[in-house]
Amino acid sequence: MTSEITSPSRRSVAKGAAWAVPAVAVAAAAPSLAASTNYCGTSPGFTVEAVCPPIDIDVLDGNSDSLYFEITNSSNDCTVEAGQTFTLASTNFVGATVEGLNALQVDAVVFGDDMQTGTIGRDIPPGEAVRVNVFPVAQLDVNGQVAGTTTLTIEGMPTTQDYTLVELDAFGLAGLTLAFCGEPQFILTTLLESLGEEVQELPAETVELLDALLGDAGLSLDNLLEGLGLGGILGGILG
């Protein structure tokens, strides 16, 4: 279950007589409010979710998002104090580099080349979350197709996600990188299932791209379509 990041609640303002309260009374209440923050202590509870880029036809138009982890304060009544640490580790992403990134921090793009340690730089109120973006597509330089795993660990609790990055320079789409969760066969099967018979409306160059991506993984687009009950639907495009 994912908790959405919500904006801080605003105090409701009473009408009528409340407007007559002297300004000094409002100012005097501020220290009391600040002191009332209930922090969770040294071992707060978190939930972590890996949020994957959507698998739909938009990704073939260059609109692929990147993977991110969402770290949520699972408490109902206490605030996680800034300074909590986490680690981010990625394996097997040989040939993938990221340019122009800052040091590892939350709410910013990061690249987990080996194991890195990050720090949550702000308080997290009950039910709210911070985001750790991994392998930002716009800043990636990928040599062909790479696949591996990324793991975020906080309080000894690891959350791992398979991830695939594909650079499409070889298909005449210079500078376009796609990012997916999972293995290539799962990714493309999911994409084709979502399209169904609409796959026959794809431009020929898109079909050829799908076929080439599958070929790199040792798979066949014809066989995959046959398994989905869509055999022969592309006619002579691949002939």
Automatic annotation (TrEMBL):
<feature type="signal peptide">
    <location>
        <begin position="1"/>
        <end position="34"/>
    </location>
</feature>
<keyword id="KW-0732">Signal</keyword>
<protein>
    <recommendedName>
        <fullName>DUF4232 domain-containing protein</fullName>
    </recommendedName>
</protein>
<dbReference type="InterPro" id="IPR006311">
    <property type="entry name" value="TAT_signal"/>
</dbReference>
